[in-house]
Write a structure and sequence with these properties.
With 108 residues, this protein is mainly alpha-helical. It contains four helices and four strands. A hairpin with a 4-residue loop joins strand 3 and strand 4.
Length: 108
Amino acid sequence: MLLPGVTRTSEQATSAVDRRAMHAQGVLALTVKERGGHQVEHNPDRPSWRCGVCGLSWPCEPAREQLVRGRSRLDLAVLMWEHLEEAARDMPQAPASYLFDRFLRWTS
């Protein structure tokens, strides 16, 4: 998902300014290298919170690798807490312990 009026091909890298703007809008775009050197964004599909690329529970391993880069443990935990809150609103039936394990436990 991109900000209104922003288009991007999968091969284009997301700039730091774009990422900050996307995060401010509640949109997270993660760019990771995949086979063949193509850029693929491992974003959560909402409301399921499954990865739109690999179909695994988000954050999948490629998303986690990208999330960790350039962030302190505290910044990562705060960011993932924000995602946990959004996921809890999207999936009210999910147990809190499951969401904690999925979004926060791996950050420690």
